[in-house]
């Protein structure tokens, strides 16, 4: 065997061994985004890397497993099983006091959402939907839902950039959910009146964390599945 080929095979073997070790230890793990729960930050179909060697902090995206299988997940995600992997933005760490006020998230009294480009829902007049450019129009039925008896209003998802683009032309009223039946915080108190957009104050206990999706009305995050246990965190997203 030629020396150059032998060196090439050795290098390949080393790379392969390093890859296997990285996967087995969690030092480097590949993932693919399967849901729009974190749009516009993480898009459906996007690939990313996760590592358990990087420290996680407020604001970073983390992957974790969750043993809880609540009724909402069982209903709308039939293939989901306890222990499935989740990815959400880490929004609260042990000792933090968290609160959501009319769709705005606060940590220890500070506005956490201020610098983030989140996907939120807004109510528009049905006739105004034609004023939105074709490339910005909702892609599916979830992103545009008719509202009211006469279907005279539309609920649409807009991120911060799109809101800035259209709010001078179209009246965009934040859509605040008031439904208490869907399941948020039932894991904490089955009789709770907290909703997606109004909850707290809630202090995060030791050894626990709290995650939220960037698409706030399209995420089965800690509001539904409970606190994230420290031992269930698998890693931090690297390429975001």
Overview of the structural elements:
With 240 residues, this protein is of the alpha+beta class. The chain has 3 domains: 1-29; 30-98 and 199-237, Umud Fragment, subunit A (Ribbon); 119-171, no CATH class. 17% of the residues lie in helices and 30% in strands. The protein has helices spanning 3-25, 71-76, 160-166, 222-225, and strands at 29-32, 47-51, 61-66, 84-92, 97-101, 104-107, 110-111, 119-125, 144-147, 153-159, 173-174, 199-203, 208-212, 228-229, 233-237. The strands form 3 sheets. Strands 1-2-15-3-4-13-14 form a 7-stranded antiparallel sheet. Strand 5 and strand 6 (104-107) form a beta hairpin. The chain is globular, with a radius of gyration of 21 Å. Residues 13-26 and 70-79 have low confidence and may be disordered.
Annotate the secondary structure layout:
Elements: H1 3-25, E1 29-32, E2 47-51, E3 61-66, H2 71-76, E4 84-92, E5 97-101, E6 104-107, E7 110-111, E8 119-125, E9 144-147, E10 153-159, H3 160-166, E11 173-174, E12 199-203, E13 208-212, H4 222-225, E14 228-229, E15 233-237
Antiparallel strand pairs: 1-2, 2-15, 3-4, 3-15, 4-13, 5-6, 5-12, 6-7, 8-10, 8-11, 9-10, 13-14
């Amino acid at each position: 065997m030629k020396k150059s080929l032998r060196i090439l095979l050795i290098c390949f073997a080393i790379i392969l061994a390093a890859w296997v070790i990285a996967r087995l230890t969690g030092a480097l793990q590949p993932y693919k985004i399967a849901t729009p729960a974190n749009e516009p930050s993480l898009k459906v179909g996007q690939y990313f890397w996760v590592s358990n060697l990087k420290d996680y902090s407020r604001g970073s995206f983390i992957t974790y497993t969750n043993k809880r299988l609540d009724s909402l997940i069982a209903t709308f995600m039939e293939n989901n099983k306890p222990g499935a992997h989740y990815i959400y933005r880490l929004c609260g760490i042990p000792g933090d006091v968290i609160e959501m006020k009319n769709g705005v998230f606060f940590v220890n009294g500070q506005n956490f959402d201020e610098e983030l480009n989140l996907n939120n829902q807004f109510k528009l007049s049905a006739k105004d939907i034609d004023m939105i450019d074709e490339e910005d129009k909702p892609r599916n039925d979830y992103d545009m839902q008719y509202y009211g008896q006469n279907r005279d209003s539309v609920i649409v998802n807009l991120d911060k950039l799109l809101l800035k683009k259209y709010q001078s032309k179209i009246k965009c009223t934040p859509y605040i959910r008031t439904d208490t039946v869907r399941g948020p915080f039932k894991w904490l108190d089955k009789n709770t009146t907290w909703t997606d957009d109004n909850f707290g104050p809630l202090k995060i206990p030791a050894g626990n964390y709290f995650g939220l999706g960037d698409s706030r009305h399209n995420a089965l995050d800690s509001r539904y599945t409970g606190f994230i246990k420290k031992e269930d965190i698998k890693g931090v997203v690297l390429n975001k």
